[in-house]
Write a structure and sequence with these properties.
single chain; 374 residues; 13 helices
């Protein structure tokens, strides 16, 4: 059959060509933007941890910064004061721990030299072990009191090995110090231009994801605040309580072990080895009661913190089940290191919100969210 429809007008052809050209240009701009984002991230890959740490610091202290700014007014010195305060919060404990570790390293080297010459004397509690006193006494006398046997075991601990280890530690400290300095620099500029950054981030998320973009951003920020309270503050509290117990029971280096316990307690269930080590050191000093007290108090404190306080702080702020929180913390720590303690829960919070929005029931139509358009 013959088609008698009129041919398209030149204006229609022009409109269709313009629409096609506009679509091609939008796609080209999108690919170009993705290309520059990818190449920018590749260029900054060495400094991405520092930038992310700066963002975590800024999100964590932003509510306090805003209250301070509203009370004293905007000023150029306020971001600098907060940045210096964050630097001191990290540098002071690290300096104290570094001094203690240096003293312990010197004492350890002196102890190794003494062991090579004189052996290790048998502790008083070895002959009193139940059922194994004779075997333990014979083993200790044959292996631990002989300087020749111990010197053979400690032959690898020499000056050259110590110098090589010192160089490696110095290189790592220089690298970590540089990244920390860039983190502080990022924190300063985020605090200085915080209002502008927040406004542009909210506008960009709304353009990309619509109305749900702002909810997604708020959920991730809440997860960082909850993680700060649930991991850092709870860990510091556990370290403070156990530090008092260490001093009361006469544990060696109570301040150092309190700091180590606080850092370890920031990861759920990781404070147990530190408490167990202190208990073993007390047992080696023939302080059976002190070891029992440290083990008992540590078990109670860690159990309450990990099973009640931490889930309430983290899960309550993000409305997430504790299993999601725990998976985010442990998975983030394994993938991203210490930074993953904050990134992991933020990622899981975003996934939990997306899952909730995808599966929620529409109260008006009685259908699921994914069926709203059907």
């Amino acid at each position: 059959m013959t088609d008698f429809s009129p041919p398209p007008s030149p204006d229609t052809i022009t409109v269709e060509a313009s629409a096609s050209t506009g679509t091609i240009q939008r796609r080209a701009r999108g690919f170009l933007a993705l290309f520059f984002v990818a190449i920018g991230l590749y260029t900054l890959k060495g400094f991405l941890p520092a930038l992310l740490w700066g963002c975590v610091f800024a999100i964590s202290i932003w509510p306090l910064y805003r209250r301070t700014e509203l009370r004293f007014g905007r000023s150029d010195w306020l971001p600098m004061v907060f940045t210096l305060a964050v630097a001191l919060i990290f540098l002071v404990p690290v300096s104290l721990v570094g001094v203690k570790v240096a003293d312990e390293a010197r004492s350890a080297l002196e102890w190794i030299d003494d062991v090579r010459n004189n052996g290790i004397p048998m502790p008083e509690w070895v002959p009193h072990l139940p059922f194994l006193s004779a075997q333990a006494t014979n083993w200790w006398q044959n292996h631990m009191t002989s300087p020749q046997r111990l010197s053979h075991l400690l032959h690898s601990v020499d000056v050259g090995h110590g110098m090589q280890m010192t160089k490696q530690v110095g290189s790592q400290l220089a690298r970590r110090g540089t990244l920390f300095a860039f983190s502080l620099l990022t924190l300063f500029f985020l605090l200085k231009d915080g209002d502008s950054v927040i406004r542009k981030c909210l506008l960009g998320s709304q353009r990309l994801f619509g109305e749900q973009g702002e909810s997604l951003a708020k959920q991730m920020i809440s997860s960082v605040h909850g993680t700060l309270a649930g991991l850092v503050l709870v860990g510091l509290g556990e370290g403070a309580i156990m530090g008092i117990v260490y001093m009361a029971t006469g544990a060696p280096q109570p301040l150092l072990f309190a700091m180590v316990t606080a850092v370890a307690a920031m990861i759920p269930f990781l404070a147990w080895p530190t408490v167990g080590l202190v208990a073993l050191l007390l047992l080696a000093k023939s302080s059976m009661i002190g070891a029992i007290v440290v083990s008992a108090v540590g078990s109670v404190v860690i159990f309450i913190a990990d099973h009640f306080i931490r889930p309430a702080l983290i899960g309550g702020s993000t409305k997430m089940p504790f299993l999601w929180v725990l998976l985010g913390i442990l998975g983030g720590a394994e993938t991203w290191g210490l930074l993953g303690l904050f990134l992991g829960p933020a990622i899981m919070a975003a996934l939990h919100l997306l899952w909730t929005l995808w599966t929620e029931v529409n109260p008006r139509k009685g259908v699921y969210a994914e069926d709203k358009g059907s």
